[in-house]
């Protein structure tokens, strides 16, 4: 999922996506440790998608805080 897709989600859906990505990251790491993961780059892809989603959520929270202070 790219950043454009993530930006289209509302905050509740974005938080749900973050939770799902955290769970996916746990599962991918577990599969890697048990030698069941064919493509180890999945860890990196999942981690980066999670970081993108968290960054977008933080940007929105800062934007909301900035507009409420003004």
Task: Describe the structure in your own words.
With 70 residues, the protein is an all-alpha fold. The protein has one domain: Helix Hairpins. The chain is built from three helices and no strands. It has helices at residues 3-7, 11-33, 41-69. α2 packs antiparallel against α3 (41-69). The protein is elongated and about 55 Å long. The model has no long low-confidence stretch (mean pLDDT 95).
H/E topology pattern:
HHH
Instruction: Output the CATH class name.
Output: Mainly Alpha
Report the portion of residues in β strands: under 5%
Task: Write the CATH architecture name.
Answer: Orthogonal Bundle
Structural class: mainly alpha
What's the N-to-C terminus distance? 34 Å
Task: Give the overall pLDDT as a whole number.
Answer: 95
The largest pleated sheet is described as: none
Shape designation: elongated
Helix content percent band: over 70%
User: Tally of extended strands?
Assistant: 0
How many individual helices? Answer: 3
Assign the CATH topology.
Helix Hairpins
Contiguous uncertain segments of 5+ residues: none
Q: What is the domain total for the residues?
A: 1
Give the radius of gyration: 15 Å
Give the gist of this structure.
With 70 residues, this protein is an all-alpha fold. The protein has a single domain, classed as Helix Hairpins (Orthogonal Bundle), CATH 1.10.287. It has helices at 3-7, 11-33, 41-69.
List the helices and strands and how they pair.
Elements: H1 3-7, H2 11-33, H3 41-69
């Amino acid at each position: 999922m790219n950043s454009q897709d993530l930006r289209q989600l509302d905050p509740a859906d974005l938080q749900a996506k973050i939770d799902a990505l955290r769970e996916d990251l746990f599962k991918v790491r577990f599969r890697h440790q048990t030698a069941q993961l064919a493509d180890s780059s999945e860890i990196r892809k999942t981690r980066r998608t999670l970081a993108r989603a968290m960054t977008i959520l933080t940007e929105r929270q800062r934007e909301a805080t900035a507009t409420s202070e003004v």
